[in-house]
Every structure is written in C-alpha cells, then in structure tokens.
Amino acid sequence: MTGYPLERVHQEAAFLGRHVHWTLTEVLMLDHAERARWVREVAEQMERGGEGP
Questions:
Q1: Is there a contact between 16 and 22 (Cβ–Cβ < 8 Å)?
Q2: Looking at the predicted structure, is the pLDDT value of residue 51 above 70?
Q3: How many angstroms separate the CA atoms of 47 and 6, rounded?
Q4: Model confidence over 5-33: pLDDT tens digits?
Q5: What residues have CB less than 8 Å from 45, skipping those under 6 apart?
Q6: Dist. CA 11–CA 29, nearest whole Å
Q7: Can you give the residue ranges of the DUF6760 domain (predicted)?
Q8: Cα separation of the two ends of the chain
Q9: Cβ neighbours of residue 30 closer than 8 Å, sequence gap 6 or more
Q10: Other beta carbons within 10 Å of 17
Q11: Is 48 left (phi over 0), alpha (psi -120 to 50) or beta?
C-alpha cells in the first residue's frame, strides 16, 4: 500500500498558501480529501475570474 505522493502534498500546500494565505500547519491539518476539495474550489474560482461563487 502506498501513501499520498509527498510531491502532491507540497504542491497543494503551496497553492493554498499562496491563494488562501493558509499556513503550512493549517493546510496539513486537512485530510487528503478535504485539501483536494479546497484546491479544486480555489482553482475553479480562479478559472471563472472571480473571488467567489
């Protein structure tokens, strides 16, 4: 059994830190599914060109 790729965790932490201004500790407190959901949500909002829904 393999774990979640460490490189992907680094990418997600950097993305959320940059765009949501969360600390590394805050990002790492999220489980994989929750962190991935936040990454998707922020990325989708960026694609729409808006700050919110």
A1: yes
A2: no
A3: 26
A4: 999 999 999 999 999 999 999 999 999 99
A5: 51, 52, 53
A6: 15
A7: 6-51
A8: 38
A9: 38
A10: 14
A11: alpha
CB atoms near residue 42 (< 10 Å): 15
What SS3 string covers 1-38? Answer: CCCCCHHHHHHHHHHHHHHHCCCHHHHHHCCHHHHHHH
Domain ranges of the chain: 6-47
Question: Two tokens at 14?
Answer: 């950097």
How many residues appear in the chain? 53
Helix (H, G, I), strand (E, B) or coil at 9: helix
